[in-house]
Amino acid sequence: MTAVLKKISTDMLNTILIIGVILLIIEIVFFNGGLIFSLGFSAVLVYFGWKNYKPVWRKVLFWVGAVSFGLTVLSMIAVRFLVLAILFLALRHYYKTKQHPEKVQVERLDPEWADPPGEPLFTQKFFGRQTTPPHSYPWQDINVHGGLGDRVIDLSETVLPPDESVISIRHFVGNVTIYVPYEVEVMIHHSAVIGRSTIFQFKKTKMLNQMTFYQTPDYQKNKPRVKVITSIFSGDLEVKRI
């Protein structure tokens, strides 16, 4: 399964995730509103059974709740869709490896991985793609929450202040791309539940639960400099020189 995940693009996983959420909402709203009650009741049984697991009746309570919770989850249309999607992707990966056997390569790890007045550059937008303006624009620090869609930030079209600038993005599903001029120093703190990251010439291929730190060698002594803090549930981070 890990090999399959490494070959799947984050965009495809995001599509599967979004379809699963939509199916879950449709099922709860139009077909089976009692799902929430069933899941909640099962969770309560599990909680009280696990809280004091020693007595026999608590163990019975826990396992009744756990089995009930599992059966309820497996009966959901969204979960069935996700299972079928994973099976399809696994079969497709198997077929591709039969046609084109992959070569095993050793991955090299680098030790470096370890608001002004006016309109904001980004708004709190749940759906859709957002980018900085395609023309010159006055710089403002970015602190934004996102839902679904990509975020593109191009620092080559603005003049950064002489001190430190901050870009903070907390995003649900979608890719984040940042273009940085060559003369700008960068510090990056990145975390993602699902997704990969590429920062200049460094690439991380780990798909799940990724945490990344990168800092250019002269960040502490040269200016201008930008601190980038990104937190994504599912999506790729790409930082490029321009």
Automatic annotation (TrEMBL):
Residues 126-239 form the Cell wall-active antibiotics response LiaF-like C-terminal domain. This is Cell wall-active antibiotics response LiaF-like C-terminal domain-containing protein. The chain crosses the membrane at residues 16-48, 60-91. The keyword RNA-binding does not apply. Keywords: Membrane, Transmembrane, Transmembrane helix. The lineage of its organism: Bacteria, Bacillati, Bacillota, Bacilli, Bacillales. It comes from Halobacillus litoralis. It comes from the Bacteria. GO terms for cellular component: membrane.
